Amino acid sequence: MQNNEERSGNIICGRNPVLEAVRSGREIDRLLVAHGVSGGSVTAIIAKCRAKGILIKEVSPQKLDYYCGGANHQGVAVMFAAQEYATVGDILASAEERNEKPFIIICDEIEDPHNLGAIVRTAEACGVHGIIIPKRRSASLNATVAKAASGALEYMPVARVTNIANTIDELKSRGIWVFGADMDGEDYTKTDFDIPCAIVIGNEGSGIGALTAKKCDKIISLPMFGKINSLNASVAAGVLMYEAVRKRRPQ
User: Fold this and answer.
1) What domains does the chain contain, in order, with CATH numbers?
2) Which H or E element spans position 38?
3) Counting Cβ atoms within 10 Å, is residue 24 exposed (0-12), middle (13-18) or buried (19+)?
4) Nearest to 148 by CA among 30, 233, 26
């Protein structure tokens, strides 16, 4: 099984350093706690992280050893994002500043950091205003995502939200059409992307969630002519983004 986190310099290990990092108000991506570790300052750290809405994940002591490069972690570590997260409001403001119709990519539980990084890279090249990811069951903005994005993460706002379905409702209330990429939908070439829109790209194995699909205004599909019935998530995203570019920026 592939890990969503990768070892990097964006990590602080040890109970006191972690507690001070949480108290400082610095934006934390997630708290890692070794299985079986509890009590004392660990309980206080977990409570503070929960109060701040920080994702908490239990991992094996061996995995935590790996993430911390062998440092004495005392059962806890915090990971920081390779880039600060934006908000959905920031993304919409970016479109408004550029006097453009919003063009957003929603990643519904993309778990492979290489896929997320590739999507970020293509999105930046296509003039996307921002990407939305969920807090849970998703790759975060770790070092692997930054590397796969090849510098694009510096320019592409990424918002992390608690609930994708609620966020879709919010976007729709602002006049943004939401298109979900999944099987048995309308041919993507027949979709008008020259409107305020968001494209939902689903999980590598299971696609977009059932509730997410119900929230979409339309399901769109890429035709498959071979023996397999799906594409890599970042490849499918790239095809759809460039079709949107073709419609939004006619030559």
Assistant:
1) 11-79 (3.30.1330.30), 88-248 (3.40.1280.10)
2) none
3) exposed
4) 233
Q: List beta partners, residue 134.
A: 161
Judge contact between 25 and 136, C-beta under 8 A. no
Give CA–CA dist 38/164, Å, rounded: 32
Cβ distance 121 to 149 under 8 Å? yes
Query: Which SS3 state, helix, strand or coil, does residue 221 take?
Result: strand
The C-alpha atoms of residue 173 and residue 153 are separated, in whole angstroms, by 28
Block residue for tokens 């004495």: 72
| Spatial separation of the C-alpha atoms in residues 210 and 208, rounded to whole Å | 7
- Across the 251 residues of the chain, what is the mean pLDDT of every consecutive 10-residue run? 51 91 84 88 91 90 89 90 91 96 96 94 97 91 89 94 96 97 93 97 90 96 87 94 91 60
- Are 184 and 222 in contact, with CB atoms under 8 Å apart? no
Residue with tokens 């997260």: 85
- Distance CA(188)–CA(96), nearest Å, equals 26
